[in-house]
Amino acid sequence: MAMNINDKFFLRLIWVVTVVVLAVVVALKLLPPPQPKPSFIYLLPHIIGGINATCSVLLVLSLIFIKNKNIQAHKVTNVITFILSALFLVFYILFHLYEKDTKFGDIDHDGVLSAAEIAAVGLNRYIYYFILLTHILLAIVVLPLILISFLRGFSMQIERHRKIVRWAYPVWLYVAVTGVIVYVMISPYYNF
Fold it and tell me: Domain limits at 159?
């Protein structure tokens, strides 16, 4: 199937959105946080964790719906999951605008890992960083895959949609599930 002008426009838009989101996330790491911090900021990690958990469940339901040929429920579930994922991204950016990274194992919450703190968490530190690294890398990869799969699904390019979803779905599910795992593992070390 040849690509039409509309497809080309949306594919370019998808890549622009992907690059802009990546640039914003990188900028968050480099910019100093504005002051004062709004008090609601400290609720966001818990909301983000809940959103990831909800998206994980919805993605499994979406697969069940499509396997049972319930296309309407599949579409609705994916739209809800997409909206929640977009909300996650907004909350993530907002949180990291004001709050820099929490160090895994920082038991005394001073922002510095002592040898005792590193020893206390042991191998869990390596497990955490492996999960976090794969989560971050695959989150970068999955954004354009999700957007392209939505473009193809909503434009009823079913075969092309299926081809990209074979890759997008497991990566999206992995990112959602590992988002929950990262939240559970890092939350004891939040300094709030």
Answer: 5-189
